[in-house]
Write a structure and sequence with these properties.
Layout lengths: L20 H4 L4 H11 L9 H19 L7
Length: 74
């Protein structure tokens, strides 16, 4: 039986067999989320890859802004 709360199918779809959380839990929020969106890009369904990549870019830009002491534009 699928466990869509704790282990949705796209969580374990990476060819490495490694779950993304095992890597990103050691990073800060923005970097972890960027990695997560890159890791799972396109795995949640058809036509989601570009959206996932844009989300990763958003989190990367957010972290750049934080490090640059620039407020994030909404």
């Amino acid at each position: 039986m699928a466990d869509n709360v704790n282990h949705p199918k796209h969580y374990n779809s990476d060819p490495s067999g490694i779950e993304c959380i095992d890597v990103v839990k050691y990073r800060n929020f923005c970097i972890g989320n960027a990695i997560k969106y890159l890791w799972r890009a396109g795995l949640k369904g058809e036509n989601t890859q570009i959206e996932d990549l844009k989300k990763a870019i958003w989190y990367i830009n957010c972290e750049i802004d934080r490090l640059s002491d620039k407020p994030r534009k909404k």
